[in-house]
């Protein structure tokens, strides 16, 4: 066997790989969990708010329409 041959054994065992993948999954899940105060602070704030228009008069109301 020369020095240039690739190693025949994997760098990590199957068990080590599963432990690493499981720990990574737990970290991702924990990063997605928020407390109620964090969820309340992340509420949606729209850039454009719809408000009532103020229409100024005088208005003509035909009394015969009533």
List the helices and strands and how they pair.
Elements: H1 14-32, H2 36-41
- How far do the termini sit from each other? 106 Å
Give the rounded overall mean pLDDT.
Answer: 75
Overall strand count: 0
**Beta-strand content:** under 5%
Major pleated sheet? none
- Specify the overall morphology: rod-shaped
Low-confidence stretches: none
Class by alpha and beta content: mainly alpha
Gyration radius, to the nearest Å? 34 Å
Task: Report the helical percentage.
Answer: 25-40%
Count helical runs.
2
Description:
The chain is mostly helical and 66 residues long. The mean pLDDT is 75. The protein has helices at residues 14-32, 36-41. It is 38% helix and 0% strand.
List keywords for this structure.
0% strand, 66 residues, 38% helix, mainly alpha
What is this structure, in a nutshell?
This protein has 66 residues and is mainly α.
């Amino acid at each position: 066997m020369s020095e240039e041959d690739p190693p025949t054994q994997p760098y990590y065992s199957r068990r080590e790989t599963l432990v690493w993948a499981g720990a990574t999954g737990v970290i991702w899940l924990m990063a997605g969990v928020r407390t109620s105060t964090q969820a309340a602070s992340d509420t949606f704030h729209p850039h454009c708010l719809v408000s009532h228009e103020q229409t100024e008069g005088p208005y003509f109301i035909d009394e015969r329409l009533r």
